[in-house]
Amino acid sequence: MLTRAIAGIAALTFALPAAAQTVKPGALKTYRDWTVGCDNGGRCKAVALAPEDGAADEWPVFMLSIERQAGPAGAVTIGLSGQEEAKPPVAILIDGKPAATMRGKAITGAEASRLAAALAGGTRATIRAGEKSAVNSLAGLSAALRYIDAEQKRAGTLGALVAKGPAPDTAAAPALPVVRAVAATGKAGSLSPTRIAALRKAAECGIADYNDTPPAPEFHALGGGEMLVLLPCDSGAYNFISSLYVIGRDGKVRPAQTDAPAGMDPDARVPSVVNGSFERGILSSYAKGRGIGDCGVSQQFAWDGRRFRLIEQSEMGECRGSIDYITTWRARVVR
Q1: What is the reported pLDDT for 197?
Q2: Signal peptide location in the record (predicted)?
Q3: Which end of the chain is less congested by CB atoms within 10 angstroms, N or C?
Q4: How far apart are CA 259 and CA 257, in angstroms?
């Protein structure tokens, strides 16, 4: 259907680009009541989850996270997220016994490494801040930290959090990819209603089926005389989908290219973003798994003159109360 629709757009010089999705963000793993993941720069994070059978009003108001940087003696940070802000000082107890006090927004350094290992050996953690308290299950944390040790090539070394051994901790942090982005200069133009309707047809947008007057597209200058079209295409209760087109210097319109799956349908011939925006040269997408935002995928892309390059991706695959997303991809942007 899509090919026939594109073939019928006589007013547009329109060519589909070859697939160019080359980026593969890190995977997330869940071990009982903890989820964990690492990015391509070797930075890893484990996040506590609410009980699988717990109702939303029973979720812990505070939820622990343990993050570690890559490289020898990579820094450990223990922080909190949740439905409320934990105002310091925050007491952390392991199986009812005092284990640490968080006097700022996080615990870092040697104390964080010690606390991470202690948490891995416990059953439950109690977090107390003022009159508020929460209990986090520690089931699965030891496995999650072992995963971090393995991914960072620390397993069997003196620097491991859990999987300790006699070897020195010497594995270097992987280098981040460099994206040479084009400055988003120039003035944005527009397209006629007829051409906009043709683009909606090509992208098989459903928004016109239930909206007599679909929202107007956004036009943004990409630099180098090219322009981005954010075309409202479909919507749901908490996700608004926009198809992506680029208008070249010669006026030809083509589907935008991304180097990573984007939008609700990664295999769509016309890529899209969800709840998208374009600001200061950065294209953003945030696809929610639920309206409260405790699962989903957040992405940022930069334009390199040919395609939108993924520069950051953060995810939460488990809809279990945590809004502390785990970064699975990073790139360094040079303009």
Answers
A1: 92
A2: 1-20
A3: N
A4: 7
